[in-house]
Write a sequence for this structure.
């Protein structure tokens, strides 16, 4: 009798919550007067000044049409096939619409989106009145983004039943009872409801303008006045964070980049593509479920006073879908220039019964004290000055070589990459830059100083981008050293930010900002670093190769091409040694236990990544989770031993080169 009473109490309580939740107050949004001007201005500016001289025509209109729906409903779980068909007659009209500032159709589509959100949330609240059968054998399609649009409301109901059951099962496996599960999911979807209700006209306009901007390339972006102002305010406030750039994918907050020198980078417990599902304050604060939250709300929850603790509940990148989430604790801090400076150390390896000593310089970012440089200070804080000090602090006569570690280095100041190259070559060209009008300029190192003339290796990975690629490419082209690791990111474009009010000075409203791609980098051999990046002389296995990371994974990324090379001298015939070095490296890796363990973990990672469906049966899912937990525990133990593996193998490769060249 007590159980029956409890069930009835929960059911009544739930219905009261549902009744409150179904009070939808989505405002009908319409364009603001300035949107007409901004739309026309962006079309003109993009067609005239973007590096890719692309016409705003029917082809782009069709792309924009698809992209706008994709931004609203990336997993295809709200709109019906008939909704897409309803607006099909305007698919090829967006070029004319936006040129003349007519943006009303975007608001009509958004209004339908609000209607579909209402229907889905109503289904969610009603469906939670009845517990799920977790003994039933059925499966959820993990990625629904490429699936056809649902034909009927009943089809969508079935998709959402499984989605909701999966969320409920995750909570059940984490130890929650049905009433707690319902409470958590109701709160989660009320947050989704709140997010949609907070949409303003400017938000819809920004979605549309970015559907246009991203049709040119993924790095061209429109920032609404609100987003731009919020960013400036956040940057000026005395708050600290975790040192990570976050983004949104479906209902999750995803780690897009770890900032060198920040708390996340120092802790090493948060990585690119990790999904954040909860945020807690200090040691005892409740972990707040943030699935379905707006990204700016999640950021505000993560930010806080310096030296305070924040706990993140995460689904690690590449982990088994449905696995038990991890909890990582980070101490908030501001990122200072000295926290992501170059650091040097000496390592020792034995090769062919001979001991070799190498200086390793870790460069997390190409940084520079801009004010100090402009003030003419000789000893200003910068990558090149710091690396020079490290090298001069060593007794290079006792070193067999130097290894520059650019793994996870996402770039930074171009001039620092040029000047750093100059520490290892005499003066000469380093990189070519071609602008949108086709004019090519060559950036030179004019300093005759060479800080180090001995054997050199540059270690890179898939995260190494932009300025890192310029340095690595120059070392490779000059045949000054070996490039070792994995294919780099392939970010070979240059962006510029322009405030739109400068073009319409008499407009009283704020018009926002456009970040636009205006130029492209080319190696001194004529090849671009864009899309392809830098291909290493010797490849090392890396998990990043299996992740959707890099310019080639971005939609509409500019492609690789080449221009005329510039005149430069080779420093060696090091490339002629590469085939023999590769043979020795491959033989060594095939017998190395640590590399075998790394390759095994990569196989497991790829298997999890390629998993298409997820069981909704409790016992099967529990077994999968337990297996995944054990695999994760073993992998973490092995990772400690694998941390310096790429550097040690790079040292062995450099040792092979020295032995071969001496013979």
């Amino acid at each position: 009798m007590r159980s029956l009473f409890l069930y009835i109490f929960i059911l009544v309580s739930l219905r009261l919550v549902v009744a409150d939740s179904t009070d939808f107050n989505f405002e009908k949004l319409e364009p603001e007067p300035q949107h007409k001007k901004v739309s026309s201005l962006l079309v003109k500016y993009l067609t005239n000044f973007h590096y890719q001289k692309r016409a705003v025509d029917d082809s782009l209109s069709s792309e924009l049409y698809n992209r706008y729906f994709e931004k609203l409903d990336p997993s295809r779980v709200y709109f019906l096939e008939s909704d897409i068909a309803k607006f099909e007659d305007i698919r090829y009209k967006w070029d004319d619409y936006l040129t003349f500032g007519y943006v009303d159709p975007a608001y009509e589509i958004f209004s339908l989106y609000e209607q579909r959100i209402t229907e889905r949330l109503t289904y969610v609240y009603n469906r939670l009145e009845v517990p799920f059968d977790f003994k039933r054998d059925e499966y959820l399609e993990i990625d629904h983004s490429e699936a056809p649009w649902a034909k009927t409301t009943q089809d969508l109901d079935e998709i959402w039943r499984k989605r909701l059951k999966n969320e409920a099962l995750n909570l059940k496996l984490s130890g929650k009872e049905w009433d707690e599960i319902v409470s958590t999911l109701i709160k989660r979807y009320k947050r989704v409801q709140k997010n949609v209700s907070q949409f303003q006209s400017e938000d819809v306009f920004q979605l549309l303008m970015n559907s246009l901007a991203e049709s040119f390339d993924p790095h061209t972006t429109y920032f609404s006045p609100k987003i731009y102002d919020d960013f400036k305010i956040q940057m000026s406030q005395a708050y600290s964070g975790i040192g990570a750039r976050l983004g949104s994918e479906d209902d999750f907050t995803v780690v897009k980049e770890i900032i060198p020198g920040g708390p996340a980078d120092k802790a090493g417990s948060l990585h690119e593509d990790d999904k954040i599902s909860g945020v807690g304050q200090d040691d005892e604060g409740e972990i707040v479920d943030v699935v379905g939250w707006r990204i700016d709300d999640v950021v505000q929850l993560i930010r806080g006073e310096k030296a305070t603790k924040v706990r993140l509940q995460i689904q690690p990148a590449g982990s088994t879908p449905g696995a038990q989430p991890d909890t990582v604790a980070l101490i908030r801090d501001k990122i200072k220039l000295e926290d992501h400076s170059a650091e040097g150390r000496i390592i020792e390896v034995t090769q062919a019964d001979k001991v070799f000593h190498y200086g390793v310089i870790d460069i997390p970012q190409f940084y520079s004290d801009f004010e100090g440089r402009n003030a003419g200070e000789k000893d200003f804080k910068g990558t090149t000055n710091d690396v020079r000090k490290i090298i001069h602090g060593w007794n290079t006569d006792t070193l067999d070589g130097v290894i520059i570690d650019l793994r996870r280095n996402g770039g930074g100041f171009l001039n620092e990459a040029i000047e750093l190259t100059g520490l290892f070559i005499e003066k000469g060209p380093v990189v070519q830059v071609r602008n949108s009008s086709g004019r090519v300029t060559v950036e030179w190192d004019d300093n005759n100083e060479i800080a180090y003339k001995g054997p050199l290796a540059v270690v890179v990975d898939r995260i190494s981008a932009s300025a890192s690629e310029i340095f690595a490419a120059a070392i490779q082209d000059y045949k000054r050293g070996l490039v070792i690791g994995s294919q780099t990111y392939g970010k070979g474009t240059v962006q510029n930010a322009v405030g739109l009010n400068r073009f319409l000075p008499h407009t009283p409203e704020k018009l926002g900002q456009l970040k636009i791609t205006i130029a492209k980098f080319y190696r001194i051999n004529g090849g671009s670093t864009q899309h392809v990046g830098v291909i290493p002389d010797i490849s090392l296995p890396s998990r990043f190769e299996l992740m959707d990371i890099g310019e080639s994974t971005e939609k509409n990324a500019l492609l690789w091409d080449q221009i005329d090379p510039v005149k430069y001298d080779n420093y060696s015939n090091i490339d002629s040694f590469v085939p023999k070095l590769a043979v020795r490296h491959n033989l060594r890796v095939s017998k190395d236990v640590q590399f075998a363990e790394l390759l095994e973990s990569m196989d497991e990672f790829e298997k999890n990544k390629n998993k298409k469906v997820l069981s909704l049966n409790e016992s099967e899912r529990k077994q999968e989770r337990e297996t995944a937990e054990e695999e994760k525990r073993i992998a973490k133990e092995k990772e400690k031993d694998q941390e310096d593996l790429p550097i040690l193998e790079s040292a062995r490769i450099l040792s092979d080169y020295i032995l071969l060249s001496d013979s």
Q: What stands out?
A: The first helix runs from residue 2 to 21. Residues 225-331 form a domain with the Pdz3 Domain fold (CATH 2.30.42.10). The chain is about 40% helix and 15% strand. The chain has three domains: 2-216, 225-331, 341-572.
